[in-house]
Amino acid sequence: MSGRAVRKALRQREAELLQARTPTEEASESEEEPEAAPPKPSLFALLKDANDDDEGDIDDDDEQVESEPQPVELASKKSKNKKKKKKKKDKGKALATEDTEAVDEDDIDRALRELNIKTQAHDASAPIVTSSNAAPGQISLSSVLKIDSRNLDAGNEMKRLFGRNAMRPDDNEGETLGRRRDLRMRLPPGVAGGRALTKGRRNTFVQPKDEWPKAGSGGLGMEIDDSDPATGVTTYKFVHSRSYQSVQQQFVMCVAAMDPERMNVLLQHNPYHITTLLQCSEIFHHQRDFTVAGDLLERALFSLGRSLHSSFQQKLAEGSARLSFRRPENRELFLCVWRYITNLSQRGTWRTAEEFARLLLAMDPEGDPYEMCLIIDFLALKARQPERFLALTEHPTLRRKYADLPNIAFSSALAQLQLGDESLATEYLSKAITRFPWIPTMLYQELGVSTQLPPALWGVPPPDDNPRQQILASLYIERTKDLWKQPAFTTFLVNTCSTIYNLPKTRLLGSSSPSVSMSLARHVMLTAMPSLITLLPREITSRDTSSFDPLPPDDDLLSYEAEPPNLAPMIRETAGGGNAFSAFVMSIIPWFRVGEDGEIDGRQMNETERAQYRDIRQQLEQAGYPDDALRRMGDEAYEVQRIMREQQEDGQAEGRGQVEGAGRAEEEET
Predict the structure, then answer these.
(1) Closest to 380 in 3D by CA, of 347, 406, 419
(2) What secondary structure letter does DSSP report for 508?
(3) Which residue, of 124, 161, 585, 619, is most buried by count of CB atoms within 10 Å of its CB?
(4) Average of pLDDT values for 180-200?
(5) pTM of the model
């Protein structure tokens, strides 16, 4: 923090102490004493030197400060019998009693601790400045991956943007919104949990809301998977209890049934089941109800945050916390944070989105399963964080990894331009154009620049034999074209391109692989851009995937089997149309009541029904489901159908009541 802020805090502290002084102390200070020794350096002057403040030097004790009292004594007295120095009340200042030695740094730190002031050196969100004399091997990767949990709170950014008062919701609006969410997501009677949400300890990711269901996490926890004392890196893993595993299997059955209402019922009974929250959030997102979709994502992040290991937040602040993407339990956090970043971007809270993107990168910086390096540059520029972005990309380990990424090369030039170093920005952009000459051509087309490109850059396309570069170029243009439309950036691009007269005859991509990696394909699938998905290889798009676990890795580490074997394909094949889950239930349950003579519901089965009956019984027996378990499942399914019918009838009745009420109001008004 600056010296000015420290001095202001000290003056406020001194004013409080001066008001609390007793008449006895004032009388003792007014006693005559011998002439004081030559004045010592003021504590403010030392604070100025420590904080590199650009203000003038603080004068000594003989100079008066208008309308502001001087600081009171900060150092402790050496003995009770030591006399206090003379204080001139007509000048309104107090002399600091110090030894003849100069005040050292420990005294300053002690004064700051007394005032509960934290210096900027302890702020994890401060720009990371590496020493030019430090060797590359001495800079640890964790030093550029530090996360400040305060920047993960979107509410803090909204307060900085619009003020604290603007964040206070209207009473009527908050009541209406809370009632609407309560109608959608209220807990039915008999649901386990019901305890109040913990508000004593701050959640690492998201803070709870009053309208959220009051229930536990359902058996979600976190353990230490591995630890490396040499580097200080600790790998964690999420764990599911037996009850949580049971809910996970129910979720897989709901997905196979392709019934959103059934999913909603499951969420009402398990309001903090992560995968169900993600799936329901995606349903509301497709319905363009972004408010409820974002609220469900925040609820999932809250549940993940209160299940963290006790040491996870500290390791996160140090940049040494890791999560293995190979575990399905961990991948829920990756997907939840990714979708939340999209939601934050739609709300314009770029600083929070950038911090969450850095969090995902810090979880697995070497593997980067979601290719966060392809989006963190855009978020850092939108959040006005060029220093942090440059410190990250210029780390020796990441510099080699990002050598073939056009977005990193071009965004580094824009970051230097945001810092005000135009000459260095021009150098960065010239190198980026030389390395990726097809990017200016694509930018000129998107921006509609009237100035012609120099002959060396005319119509340079991405390499035909490199599908990876084709996808990277299209991604970068699609994501940052609005950013380049700023007049300052457009002018900067045109001026720099005009200085390129020739290009090297050989490509500068080096030995980078032209194939599309699984992480890049996963990134493209998550962006949901059809024009980019068509560029993916057929062997990737034909793989089995799901919206709640897109493109899982081949070396999956399964701690338990969440999907019942052979059940999902059987449901899809058996259901003939309409509501797939209802068709499945109505078609399978009577078959388990078939009599020995082949009767079903009072009639004889035909040959087709007999073949279907034998086939489905065989598949279920191979899957390990006995008859009694299937009958219980059928009874539960009938009960779910009954609940859904009642909810549908209540909704229809409520809708009719609203229409009739509106009609009566219109008639009365007429």
Answers:
(1) 419
(2) S
(3) 585
(4) 46
(5) 0.66
**The residue to which tokens 């699609």 are assigned:** 478
DSSP string, 60-127: -TTSPPTTSPPP---SPPS-TTSPPPP--TTTT-------SSPP-HHHHHHHHHHTT---GGG-TTSP
Domain that includes residue 587, residue range: 567-669
Whether the per-residue pLDDT at 474 is higher than 70: the answer is yes
Half-sphere exposure of 12 (CA within 13 A, CB side): 11
Helix (H) or strand (E) holding 223: strand 220-228
End position of a domain, from candidates 122, 152, 184: 122
d(CA 27, CA 33): 13
What span, in angstroms and rounded, lies between the C-alpha atoms of 79 and 72?
18
In sign, the C-alpha dihedral spanning 306, 307, 310, 316 is: negative
**Inside any domain, residue 92:** yes
Band (37; pLDDT cuts 50, 70, 90)? very low
Read off the pLDDT of each residue in 165-178 and give the average, rounded to a whole number. Answer: 54
Residue position matching structure tokens 């739609």? 346
List Cβ<8 Å contacts ≥24 apart for 408-412. 408/373, 408/377, 409/435, 409/436, 410/436, 410/439, 410/476, 410/480, 411/377, 411/378, 411/380, 411/381, 411/480, 412/377
What is the Cα Rg of the chain in Å?
Answer: 33
Backbone angles phi, psi at 591, to 5 degrees: -70, -20
The pLDDT value recorded for residue 455 is: 87
Q: What is the mean pLDDT of residues 589-593?
A: 49
Q: Is residue 631 part of a domain?
A: yes
Lowest mean pLDDT among 384-393, 488-497, 513-522, 569-578: 569-578
Residue 632 gets which letter from DSSP? H
73, part of any domain: yes
pLDDT for 574 equals 38
Q: What pLDDT is stored for residue 664 in this prediction?
A: 60
Q: Tokens for 44?
A: 């403010």
- Determine what percent of the chain falls in helix, strand and coil, rounding each to the nearest 5: 55, 5, 40
Structural domain ending residue among the three candidates 75, 102, 122 = 122
**Dist. CA 380–CA 529, nearest whole Å:** 22
What is the C-alpha separation between 536 and 528, in angstroms, rounded? 12
- Rounded Cα–Cα distance for residues 423 and 428 (Å): 9
Q: Any residues with CB less than 8 A from the CB of 387 and at least 6 apart, and which?
A: 127, 128, 129, 419
Q: Do 302 and 277 touch, CB atoms closer than 8 A?
A: no
Alpha-carbon distances of 80 from 17, 25, 508, rounded to whole Å: 19, 14, 75
Which single residue is written with the structure tokens 């851009």? 529
| Cβ pair 418, 386 in contact under 8 A | yes
- Per-residue three-class SS string for 526-588: HHCCHHHHCCCCHHHHCCCCECCECCCCCCCCCCCCCCCCCHHHHHHHHCCCCCHHHHHHHHH
Q: What is the DSSP letter of 190?
A: T
The residue count for the chain: 670
3-state helix/strand/coil string of 421-455: CHHHHHHHHHHHHHHCCHHHHHHHHHHCCCCCCCH
d(CA 620, CA 625): 6
Taking CA 315 as the corner, what is the angle to CA 312 and CA 321, rounded to the nearest 5 degrees? 80
Cβ atoms of 559 and 220 within 8 Å: the answer is no
599 strand-pairing partners: 604
> Does residue 572 sit within a domain?
yes
The pLDDT confidence band at residue 513, using thresholds 50, 70 and 90, is confident
The two structure tokens encoding residue 207: 């803070």
Number of domains in the chain: 2
